[in-house]
Design brief:
about 25% strand, globular, 60s Ribosomal Protein L30, Chain: A, about 240 residues, 2 domains, alpha+beta, CofE-like fold, 6 helices, homodimer
Chain lengths: ~240, ~240
């Protein structure tokens, strides 16, 4: 049995806020066998990963791309500054590989749920470090996953995925284990952290300030060590079939 | 609060078996506000979507592809017969677009958890119809999602996704709705059916014959009509950035 509980609404998070404190203040019990899933926006806000569009001077490349794709050149400038590589530009979508290795729209730069109209929210600089810090600061020391919603190559709609992980096996490797008939299973590596991230999107409302979700019943995936974080989920550039 | 419960193990499903009957026999309460998530393999088995490798005569294209990619030419023949298009072939992976429009490895043809060593399991011919039939046959009439595990373009590991849907909005469209600050949200279309499919993978063991999972707490996504099924999740070929 798995149980997913959205923590009661957090206040608007501001740069410098103690996110672990705000989470504790909700009064929700968190133990070492729980996974706490947190939408990255509150992490980014607490870490001050915010840009005011009015402070941005777009360069030549951003102006050209913005004109070609009907976007604000200042927004495009910030996207390019967060991107290691522009993977595809098409129909207003700038699909980028971020410096972390994530492939997503606009390099994770987003305007919705920002505190001010001209504010952009960036991804945390090191989401694994953010997850580890949050885990260490919470008395119950739950495993922590930080998430963002990413589009997919061949399917419509976004799914929440893991961008930072502490204390959890991101992948579950079934290769070499026997199936129900005792035969070796092939190519079964499950992206557990992404499935948990997706699951945690279900109990919360996008607009209702419920960025944090407690997941119970996943002890077998939790580790005492913080572990390698999200890295196992990120496909190496040389393994990418769609470069 | 969302609650995910794996139904106690089903017996090995055989062609012609009444899957709704087997699910009822587990004694698990299912109501019209529940979502029942079923891994497609038991659906495919009940529907007789099985091929014995010994009955397959590989054609020229299958023999060539199999030789190039180190695969069994009979397996490759079955994959090609299930594929509308071979999207990429690389390092032993044949990534195909199925006749349903799904992009996945081996056109969904899989050997693990088959009942016999030389047996291949195919996707259901019409997974939406399978979902509708199951919904109609279950006394509580829960919404039904049929799933398979697909790889992703830029991330390691597979996630369970929806391949058939009855009685549930597969996408939740937040475009035009205000965010927490009252501003219109952009590009927020959530693949709810895929997030539910991923969530339902968490309570079950891959080898423990728990193909069916009951999800409680999702009433706001459930519809009385069976609706358009999985179609909203399938990106149209002309919108595919990675053809």
């Amino acid at each position: 049995m798995i149980e997913l509980l959205a923590l009661p609404g957090l206040p608007e998070v501001r740069p410098g806020d103690d996110l672990a404190r705000l989470i504790q203040d909700t009064g929700t019990e968190l133990t070492a066998t729980d996974v706490l899933v947190v939408a990255h926006k509150v992490v980014s806000k607490a870490e001050g990963r915010l840009v005011d569009l009015n402070d941005v001077v777009p360069g030549e490349r951003a102006r050209r791309l913005a004109a070609d794709h009907g976007k604000d050149p200042r927004h495009t400038e910030v996207v390019l500054s967060e991107a290691a590589q522009l993977v595809r530009a098409d129909g207003g979508r700038l699909i980028c590989r971020t410096r972390h290795g994530f492939v997503c729209a606009n390099a994770g730069v987003d305007q919705s749920n920002a505190a001010a109209p001209d504010q952009l929210i960036l991804l945390p600089v090191d989401p694994d470090a953010s997850a580890r810090a949050l885990r260490a600061a919470l008395p119950g020391r739950p495993a922590v996953i930080i998430t963002d919603s990413f589009g997919r190559a061949w399917r419509n709609g976004q799914c929440e995925v893991a961008i930072g992980v502490a204390g959890l096996h991101a992948l579950e490797d079934w290769r070499g284990r026997p199936d129900a008939q005792g035969r070796e299973m092939h190519a079964s590596i499950i992206a557990i952290a992404d499935e948990i991230a997706a699951a945690a999107d279900l109990p919360r409302g996008k607009t209702s300030r419920e960025p944090a979700v407690r997941v119970r019943g996943l002890h077998r995936h939790i580790t005492d060590e913080d572990g390698p974080g999200v890295a196992p989920l990120v496909r190496r550039l040389e393994d990418d079939l769609f470069r």
